[in-house]
Amino acid sequence: MPRSIVTGNGNLLIAMDAENMIRDLYYPFVGMEDHVAFQHLHRIGVWTDQQFSWLYDKEWQHSSQYVEDTIVTNSHAKNDRLKLQFAFNDFVYPTEDVFIRKIVIRNDEDHERHLKLFFGQDFHLYGDKQQDTAYFDPEHKALVHYRKRRYFWISGLTNTKEGLDSYTTGKSEYRGLEGTWRDAEDGHLAENAIEQGSVDSTVEFDVSIRPKGQTTLYFWICAGKTLEEVVKLHKFILNEKPEKLLINTINYWQSWVSKEKDRVAAIPEDMQKAYKQSLLIVRTQIDNRGAIIAANDSDIMKFNKDTYTYMWPRDGAWVSIALDHAGYGEISQRFLEFCSDVMPVEGYLMPKYNPDHSVGSNWHPWFKNHEKQMPIQEDETASVTFALYNHFRQFHDIEFIQRMYPTLISEAGNFMTKYVDPQTDLPRASYDLWEYDRGVSAYTCAAVYAGLNAASKLSETLGHFNHQRKFAKAAERLKEVILKFLYDKEKGRFLKKITVDESTGEITKDYLIDASLHGLWMFGLLPPDDPRIVSTMNAVHDALKVPTPVGGLARYERDDYQRVHGDYNGIPGNPWIITTLWHAQWLMAIAKTREGMQPVEEAIQWTIGHMNKAGILPEQLSPFNGEHLSVAPLTWSHAVFVDTILQYNEKLKEFAIPVAPIATKPEVAPVAEPIAD
């Protein structure tokens, strides 16, 4: 189940499902240590009128979205049978590692009611369930989960009192025990004050609501590395008041997302709104120490017991480019510093990294067919160098690139000039951007060309003229051999890749059509209107368009990744957000008239139409019903959308389209207000 809504602050990330249940909780890194873990959740339930119901039961109707221009949720749950409504404002405070849920509960009955709200915590500290402790703190009426250097503090506040009304701790996932959440279903908790090992907990808050009235409950989780830290955070919430923290958070994110609002002033308001929400969602997926995480939806674990919770340098490079174009260079700078820190002296980046700078998992072998090989995707090293030059062009930070020179620019440039097939002068074989095919792909070659040019220009800026000439010469030669070996005159288009037999020199051509061929113009190898690019892009569109009402473009022909039940006859694969928007960017790049922008606008609206109500985009869609597939949100999907909108805004200005009026907003977006009982 791809995530429906997320909120975070770069240290603490919370991801929730369509029923407002917490499914992932990352701390202290975004993308590392999911303390809920795959296939588990934190539950919310209610007891009233001698009846119990979990909010994920089918009788509840749910909606999830955000307070406008924020990552504060504005979600709702309604139960017609129980005649109850819940309104949620969930947020992580920007500067403190606390997650707060404001829940306004409405009684639709004509009589006063007494409710018990239950919150079940299914923590898997450090990602598993062992050696944990959960205990009740009587002084603060709070519940604590801890193990080693991870502490989570659970408490709350109603209109009448602070702290928990009841609690219990117990065993779960051990000898057949499901967990203490089962204890809540009779409306009473056992109040077991401590448990160790494989544990969970459930806490209770009691409220009374007048006929047709409403009341407010605040629930929070404080995250820290010591007991002292979480106690301090608890007192911070009580002293500052959770409602004030909510308003502060709303104001912060509205200011953050609007600081460069002039960059999209020429586009319609619905596009501006989707653009801002995508920017905000991108920010939730980025760790404060620089790692741009691909996605944090743990449900992808069911496919191969691994996740997308890594920093792929390629994904990060394209995200950082979009952030630079949007005016958020401080985030890109931290990403580039991360890449510089992890790059070895050999000058190449591994396929992916954890947010603590350690190397991520990998399925590319070091040894295959009785030969040693490099387990890399060379486009990642090249893309980061390209992104660094893009960053410099935007912000002209000489001192920053001077710091990057010895550890990133020169090392990466030297590697790219040396990692060359002596028979063709093309880059040696590596895995492609989809991490599936090994060979000499057009996308990787174009990325290396762009990376070498970037290293040359940055070297020239810093006065390193020997490197400048060396890298420029290598780029020039690479362009020559790309056009020689990867453009097929008979087909009249570029090839996805070739494979070179190192012992015989025999070249095998791969005619499979792949959307990654967009890299040839995106990396500047040829202009987008070059006839060879035009013929290639037309072939890509014709072969990869999805011929169902869902539409969009697949990655490549016969793509079987994440296929769902249905007849794929005539369907090349699932439509991807990235590939569909790449084609829109190319159409925009070659558009000569305002009328030529119509298919671009259709692609943008197609993308907006496939966002959920919270503005979340997945990696890909079902070609049959448009259902979100794989992971959501996918950071790269949102980044490509952001960059497409920015390019669209600039193109409209070229055509002198009148600037769309920007709607004025109140200083604070409306949220559910607490009502005294």
Write the layout of secondary structure elements.
Layout: E1 5-8, E2 13-16, E3 22-29, E4 32-34, E5 43-48, E6 51-54, E7 60-63, E8 75-79, E9 84-92, E10 98-107, E11 113-121, E12 132-137, E13 142-147, E14 150-158, E15 166-171, E16 194-197, E17 199-209, E18 214-224, H1 227-240, H2 242-258, H3 269-284, H4 301-304, H5 313-326, H6 329-342, E19 367-368, E20 371-372, H7 378-395, H8 398-418, E21 430-431, E22 438-441, H9 442-461, H10 465-485, E23 487-488, E24 493-494, E25 497-500, E26 507-510, H11 519-522, H12 531-544, H13 577-590, H14 598-609, E27 620-621, E28 628-629, H15 635-654
Antiparallel strand pairs: 1-2, 2-3, 3-4, 5-6, 5-11, 7-8, 8-9, 9-10, 10-18, 11-17, 12-13, 12-16, 13-14, 14-18, 15-17, 19-20, 21-22, 22-25, 23-24, 25-26, 27-28
Helix pairs in contact: 3-15, 5-6, 5-7, 5-15, 6-7, 6-8, 7-8, 7-9, 8-9, 8-10, 9-10, 13-14, 13-15, 14-15
Largest sheet: 9 strands, antiparallel
Helix fraction, binned, reads 25-40%
Low-confidence segments:
661-677
Oligomerization state? single chain
**What global shape is seen?**
elongated
Q: What count of helical segments does DSSP give?
A: 15
* Strand portion: 15-25%
The number of distinct β-strands equals 28
C-alpha termini separation = 38 Å
Provide the structure class: alpha+beta
Q: Please identify the top-level CATH class of the domain at 5-255.
A: Mainly Beta
The average pLDDT score comes to 95
Strand order of the largest sheet: 7-8-9-10-18-14-13-12-16
Query: What is the CATH architecture assignment of the domain at 5-255?
Result: Distorted Sandwich
Rounded Rg: 27 Å
CATH topology of the domain at 5-255: Beta-galactosidase, Chain A, domain 5
